[in-house]
Design goal:
alpha/beta; 12 strands; globular; 4-stranded antiparallel β-sheet; binds adenosine-5'-diphosphate; 7 helices; 243 residues
């Protein structure tokens, strides 16, 4: 039997605020297999971002366990977590988080500085990845010269720079109109499928969640429901036209 890539066991996170405490997650048991595309949905405050950040090694658990590919993040050293994030993860954010004074290709190359890609190979590799997201011709443009959808494509290309096994996306279409958001979702879905990557995505938008293979519904810090989803029912959109 194949091992899950991600496994959480009674995973909990409490935030202490002075004398009061907030239980952002209170015992989540979840398994995500390699190659799966999973959407985390739930009302605001249900613990989606906390779960994503725990799996991203950005926040430590206050209870339970979070395993990714054989590493228990709660018991890992800071150094192990830095290596884990560099070698295993790609991050995509709602607000793109691009460096404004850098060209698109330089933004894509940022993670390569940490992973030891020789400087002479970075531009070529960055342009190759930009080509995969349909922006090979925009490599020398700065973010301000690109549309929102194009900026998110650059951010997706950056998340792929070190060939991560796992991509974590926090409301990646939140700043985009619905048509551009649909194009970005179709692109993400294709990229993870073609290369066998795993994608875990937080969204409050069920239209976005419908691109996933499985939908995890969170409420009040626990898994309320797991839903298998027929992602094939959502066609890729090109210029607003299904194909
Ligand atoms: P969601 O992403 O579903 O909106 P979050 O994971 O951001 O939910 O938050 C879950 C709960 O934990 C909320 O009540 C939120 O206020 C609280 N919380 C999240 N991060 C912190 C923090 N750094 N400090 C204190 N409380 C937090």
């Amino acid at each position: 039997m194949t091992e899950p890539l991600i496994r959480t066991v009674a995973l909990a996170r409490r935030y202490q605020m002075g004398k009061s405490a907030v239980d952002a997650l209170c015992g989540v048991d979840l398994e995500i297999m390699s190659g799966e595309f999973v959407a985390l949905v739930g009302p605001s405050g249900s613990g989606k971002s906390t779960l994503l950040h725990l799996i991203g090694g950005l926040v430590r658990p206050t209870g339970g366990e979070v395993w990714v590919g054989g590493l228990e993040l709660g018991r890992s050293t800071d150094r192990q977590l830095v290596a884990y994030r560099r070698d295993t993860l790609g991050f995509i954010f709602q607000s793109f988080n691009l460096l404004p004074i850098k060209a698109a290709w330089e933004n894509v190359a940022v993670p390569m500085m940490l992973s030891g890609v020789p400087p002479a190979r970075r531009k070529g590799r960055a342009l190759e990845i930009l080509d995969q997201v349909g922006l090979g011709h925009r490599g020398d443009h700065r973010p301000a010269e690109l549309s929102g959808g194009e900026q998110q494509r650059v951010a997706i290309a950056r998340s792929l720079a070190n060939s991560p096994r796992l991509i974590l996306a926090d409301e990646p279409t939140g700043n985009l109109d619905s048509r551009t958001g649909g194009e970005i979702m179709a692109l993400l879905r294709r990229l993870v499928r073609d290369e066998g990557r795993t994608l875990l995505l937080v969204t409050h938008d069920m239209g976005v969640a419908r691109y996933a293979d499985r939908i995890v519904h969170l409420r009040d810090g626990v898994v309320e429901r797991l839903e298998l989803n027929d992602a094939a029912a959502v066609p890729d959109q090109v210029d607003g036209v299904a194909r």
